[in-house]
Amino acid sequence: xxxxxxxxxxxxxxxxxxxxxxxxxxxxxxxxxxxxxxxxxxxxxxxxxxxxxxxxxxxxxxxxxxxxxxxxxxxxxxxxxxxxxxxxxxxxxxxxxxxxxxxxxxxxxxxxxxxxxxxxxxxxxxxxxxxxxxxxxxxxxxxxxxxxxxxxxxxxxxxxxxxxxxxxxxxxxxxxxxxxxxxxxxxxxxxxxxxxxxxxxxxxxxxxxxxxxxxxxxxxxxxxxxxxxxxxxxxxxxxxxx
Length: 242
Fold this sequence. Notes:
Layout: H1 2-32, H2 43-53, E1 60-64, E2 71-73, E3 78-82, H3 83-86, H4 91-108, H5 112-144, H6 151-192, H7 198-241
Parallel strand pairs: 1-3
Antiparallel strand pairs: 2-3
Helix pairs in contact: 1-7, 2-4, 4-6, 4-7, 5-6, 6-7
């Protein structure tokens, strides 16, 4: 009973924070997407200009559907800008495009958290699919072998399942410095290359900071659900030992 109460006490604020973060990034981008930048550079212009100035010639810039669906695909060597960014000559569009180029430069310069996140992607995908089946197998084995010498096998399988479940939280944690660093690089590149005037940088910073909040929210939600499964299983194991 108390377990579920504590879980809700943690979950509800995180859900509220996540909703606020999502609304903030949408409203902030919408605001600064209505502010034309003085250079009249679109998101596409910004991306290609920043790449060219850094001697990066093996990355293309494409367009995908949606709003704020921008992403860098290192496997295909392409920066995909959303429809809301690609052709918009706004402060907001420049900020988002520059952020994606920040990821390109992280890869080019071997930024360690970026490399770590890249390694974690396939591991996390596999772990998220296997976690619950492994935990269920561990629980069943623990029930079947409780009275035998093999009792510990089920418990160790549950521990493995908890570890697999926690990979998504680890991924969310590693993502934070990657995203914040990409935003820092974006601001610096836009200043160094004159994409935005000094008085426009503050608006771009607000757009990038709002987007970063969504990654903080993702980490908090992931952590709460990890703690839920972690505590639930250890309570189960504790009850089995009584």
